[in-house]
Inverse folding.
C-alpha cells in the first residue's frame, strides 16, 4: 500500500515544525506534498526527522523562492519543475517515485491562486491554472496524482459561510493593532470584491447572529464558484475523498472554524482503480490543539493498494456511511 498525504503548512511553518511533524506522523505516510513550504530549512528538517528524501520547486538560478515541496519514503527517480506564468506558485512540482511493488508513480503538487476578490471569487484565474496543469499532465500515461490546496469548492460540496465570516471577523479584530502578525491569514477585505466591501460593516454586525447563519450558509454555497474543480472532473480525474466518502463534509480549512473543503487529491483513472481509503486528519491523537498549532489547514491522505480496490468498483452514489473521515464533525 502507498499512502499519500497533502498538507498546507501555512507560510513556511516557521516556529511550528514540532506540531507539523506530529500531524504528519499521525498518518505514517509514504509521500507528503507540502504547500506554502516557503522555508527551505523547515522542509529539510522535516525530511530529516521523518527519514525521507525531499524535492522542492526552488529553481536552480534562485529566481524565486520555493513554495511547494514533496517528502518521500519511496525512492525518488526524477523530479521536474514546470514554470508557467499562469500558475500561482510560478510552477507545478512533478516527482516520479518507485513504489514498493515496483510500479512507477508520479505525484504533482500544486497551489491554486486564492484572490477571492477578483471576478467571481477568483474562479477565472483558477480555471486558467487548471487548464495549464491538465495540459502538463496530459502527456503522463502512468499512474499519477495531483495534490495540494486548490482554494475552491467541488461541485455539490457545502460551504459553512457563517463559520468563515466569523473566522474572518475574529482575525480582523485580533490583528487590528498588529497587521504584521496576520501574515498568511486572510481578511474580510481580501475575500470581498472591492465593489461589495461597502457591506462589510453589515457582515460584521451579523457575524454573531445565529438567526442569519443558515441563510448565510445557503447564500454562500450558491455564490461559491466551483468551475476549476469541475474541469478536473471533466478530464476524468477522481476526487479521492469524495469518491470514498460520498456524504462526508470533509472540511479542511480553516482549522479554527471549519468552513469548506479546499485541499484535494485527484487520481488519474489508472491510479484510482487502486484507491482504498481517503481521510481528513484532525490530529486528536496528538491533542486537540495540535492541528491549530500546526497550520490553518488540515492534512488529507489517500491509500492506494497494489490491486484493484473494491471501493472504486462501487458507484459513488452508494449508500455507505461517512465513517471514512477522521474526527468528522458536522
Amino acid at each position: 500500500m502507498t499512502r499519500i498525504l497533502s498538507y498546507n503548512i501555512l507560510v513556511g511553518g516557521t516556529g511550528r515544525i514540532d506540531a507539523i511533524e506530529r500531524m504528519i506522523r499521525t498518518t505514517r505516510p509514504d509521500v507528503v506534498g507540502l504547500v506554502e513550504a516557503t522555508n527551505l530549512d523547515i522542509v529539510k528538517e522535516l525530511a530529516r526527522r521523518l527519514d525521507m528524501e525531499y524535492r522542492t520547486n526552488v529553481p536552480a538560478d534562485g529566481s524565486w523562492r520555493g513554495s511547494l515541496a514533496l517528502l518521500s519514503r519511496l525512492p525518488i527517480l526524477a523530479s521536474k519543475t514546470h514554470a508557467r506564468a499562469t500558475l500561482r506558485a510560478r510552477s507545478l512540482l512533478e516527482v516520479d517515485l518507485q513504489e514498493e511493488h515496483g510500479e512507477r508513480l508520479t505525484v504533482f503538487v500544486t497551489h491554486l491562486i486564492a484572490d477571492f476578490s477578483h471576478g467571481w471569487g477568483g474562479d477565472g484565474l483558477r480555471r486558467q491554472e487548471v487548464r495549464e496543469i491538465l495540459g502538463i499532465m496530459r502527456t503522463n500515461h502512468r499512474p499519477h496524482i495531483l495534490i495540494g490546496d486548490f482554494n475552491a469548492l467541488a461541485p455539490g460540496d457545502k460551504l459553512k459561510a457563517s463559520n468563515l465570516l466569523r473566522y474572518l471577523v475574529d482575525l480582523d479584530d485580533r490583528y487590528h493593532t498588529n497587521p504584521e502578525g496576520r501574515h498568511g491569514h486572510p481578511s474580510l477585505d481580501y475575500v470581498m470584491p472591492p465593489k461589495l466591501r461597502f457591506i462589510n460593516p453589515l457582515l460584521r454586525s451579523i457575524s454573531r447572529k445565529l438567526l442569519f447563519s443558515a441563510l448565510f450558509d445557503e447564500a454562500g454555497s450558491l455564490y461559491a464558484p466551483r468551475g476549476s474543480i469541475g474541469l478536473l472532473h471533466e478530464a476524468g480525474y477522481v476526487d479521492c475523498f469524495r469518491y470514498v466518502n460520498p456524504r462526508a463534509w470533509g472540511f479542511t480549512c480553516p482549522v479554527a472554524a471549519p468552513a469548506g473543503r479546499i485541499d484535494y487529491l485527484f487520481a488519474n483513472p489508472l491510479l484510482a482503480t487502486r484507491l482504498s481509503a481517503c481521510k481528513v486528519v484532525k490530529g486528536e491523537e496528538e491533542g486537540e490543539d495540535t492541528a491549530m498549532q500546526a497550520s490553518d489547514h488540515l492534512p488529507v491522505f489517500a491509500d492506494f493498494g497494489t490491486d484493484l480496490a473494491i471501493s472504486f468498483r462501487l458507484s459513488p452514489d452508494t449508500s455507505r456511511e461517512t465513517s471514512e473521515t477522521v474526527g468528522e464533525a458536522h
In short: Residues 310-330 have pLDDT under 50 and may be disordered. The chain has twelve helices and twelve strands. The chain has two domains: 2-154+225-313, 161-219.
